[in-house]
Design goal:
Length: about 475
Amino acid sequence: NKRIKIKSLLENASAGEKATLMGWVRTKRSNKHVTFIALNDGSCIQNYQVVADPARISEEILKKANTGASIKVHGSIVDSQGAGQQTEILAEKITLLGEADPEKFPIQPKKHSLEFLRENAHLRVRTNTFGAIFRIRHHLAFAVHQYFHDRGFFYVHTPIITASDAEGAGETFQVTTLDLKNPPRDEHNNINFGEDFFERATNLTVSGQLEGELAALALSEIYTFGPTFRAENSNTTRHLAEFWMIEPEMAFYDAEDNQDLAEDFLQYIIRFALEHCKEDLAFLDKRAAEEEKEKKAELRSDMGLLDRLEFVTQNEFVRISYTEAFEILKDSKPNKKKKFTFPIVDWGTDLQSEHERFLVEKHFKKPVIISDYPKAIKSFYMKQNEDGKTVAAMDILFPGIGEIVGGSQREERLDKLTERMEELGISQEELWWYLDTRRFGTTPHAGFGLGFERLVQFVTGMGNIRDVIPFPRTPGNAEF
Ligand code: ATP
Ligand code: MG
Ligand code: MG
Ligand code: MG
């Protein structure tokens, strides 16, 4: 007898059929006459009710079918008397596949704190909350490929181990086969990376953009979707040391085309989730509402989760320049008593998360695209504007999240690019291959990077980025 997943049972089964289910016991209730087991197999958030008659199923099996144990159930589907579910299974045979000692299994049928579950990250996916989050994460990843594939973009795999650190931000994880306690040295007493496996210093990638640009200047429209690594020292609710980034890169796009694509893409992905993750989202919506009531909401918002998602898909994003954002912030008096306080901005300094939150959550109450940032605070490869002061950069800010996308039109003019690299002390020799794109058939092009976990955070309403990736990597945290 083949196993049926609970999801398809709920969708298709009707009374009278025989079925075999396998899954993990969520709860068990017994009286003298009958035992009810709520079984979950991860295919959906719903449990399936197993009805076991002690006259038919041995006492020992029923005793050991505790929360956390895995079992196989064979029986007949019958109409359910209970509310909420059409059918249930009347067990003819139950096999215990794996026991779970009730004294030791940490995930009990009660509400655990997210902190507790983080300490048990190896088992937390057995809860409703994390089951829902990781199913949604899957659907979002699938939607990313669907969106680009349907539009003729090609998925490009960029290297994980690279010799460039893209931004020169110095937040890279070094990779080397040398024994750094006792490394070989050259005549200047510097570490001699010539003896390394790669015969050079390498690091884990912080972004696939530069390599993505090479592909775009041949395939026209590409995207990468891979892990990126940043040795972020900050312990925030928005930063991981290992996160997944989606980076489309398009030849023949200008800054506005880039913004149009990013907005359309984000709305598509969120609509996809609303369509394909109804039950999991309904569960998380309720969860968020409870947190809100208990004043524990992690992702502050005036709206419920589902309303917020609908809202973003139905409303155009606000588009302003950095200078316009600066004017708004300059004239908005920071008020210490209110929710939004922020330091005064000087034109030319980067916006802090308090400024971004004010603009999105208070001033516009909509997603905001900020463009044309001062050139001094952005990367060398961004296209320089006519004014000589700004570059064609854009950040997209989302309510409750802050920056979700960072992108730009790229500088396609070789002279402008090398001039900027010189100013910033970025080696042209090391990036000779990147500069070749500007030497041979250069063309206007643009792209952006979207942090996949920030997107999952927005869609699930989870306040801490550690709760939307199965095994978060943060300072001091790499056990599982
Ligand atoms: P932030 O200002 O939040 O530190 P950033 O400007 O350093 O982000 P970018 O280099 O622009 O980030 O990367 C593109 C996108 O990747 C960001 O908009 C964000 O969504 C995501 N991102 C960046 N750093 C992290 C991180 N440490 N963990 C998770 N996502 C990240
Ligand atoms: Mg950063
Ligand atoms: Mg930023
Ligand atoms: Mg950025």
